[in-house]
Amino acid sequence: MTKMVKVKALFVSLLAIAALLQTAAVAAESKPKYKKATGQVVSANPTSIVIKGRLKQPLTIAVNAGTEIVGARAAKAGDKVAVNYRVDKNGNTATRINVRTQATEKTAAAPAATASTAAPKLN
To answer: CA–CA distance from 88 to each of 28, 32, 78 (Å)?
Structure first.
C-alpha cells in the first residue's frame, strides 16, 4: 500500500510540474516583442506599410488607428522611414512611423551645409 501512495504522489507531482511549464510557456508566448526597422517604403496604404531595408525580403507591417505617424505627411513609395513595431501572435503592428521625405532630408542637410560655409564671426 505504501508503494501505491508513492506512485500517486509522484503522478500528482508530475501533473503539477506539467501545469506550471504550460502556464509559463503561454505567458512567454503572449508577451509582445518590440522592434525597429528602417528602410525605403516599397508600398503603403491605410492598413499596412511595406519597407525594404537591410533585409533581403521586404517587411510588411500592419498600420492601425493606434499607429503614430511622425512627419509632414503619411508615408508613400520612395520615402525613407523608421518604424517602431511590435511582434505578437497577430503579426507585426506599427506603433510609430517616422517619415523622412526627400524634402525633409534636404532641409535637414541645408543648415549644416550653410553653417560650414558661413564666414567666421570677428570680434
So the answer is: 11, 5, 28
The confidence score (pLDDT) of residue 83 equals 96
What are the residue ranges spanned by the domains of the chain? 33-105
Residue linked to cell 517604403: 41
Mean pLDDT per segment of 10 residues, for the chain of length 123 residues?
77 80 67 92 94 89 94 90 93 94 60 49 50
- Where does residue 99 rank: exposed (0-12), middle (13-18), buried (19+ CB within 10 A)? buried
113's grid cell: 551645409
Give the cell for residue 97. Answer: 512611423
What CA–CA distance (Å, rounded) separates 111 from 103? 13
Q: What grid cell was written down for 87? A: 511582434
Torsion of the alpha carbons at 92, 98, 101 and 104, rounded to the nearest 10: -170
In words, the CATH class of domain 33-105 is: mainly beta
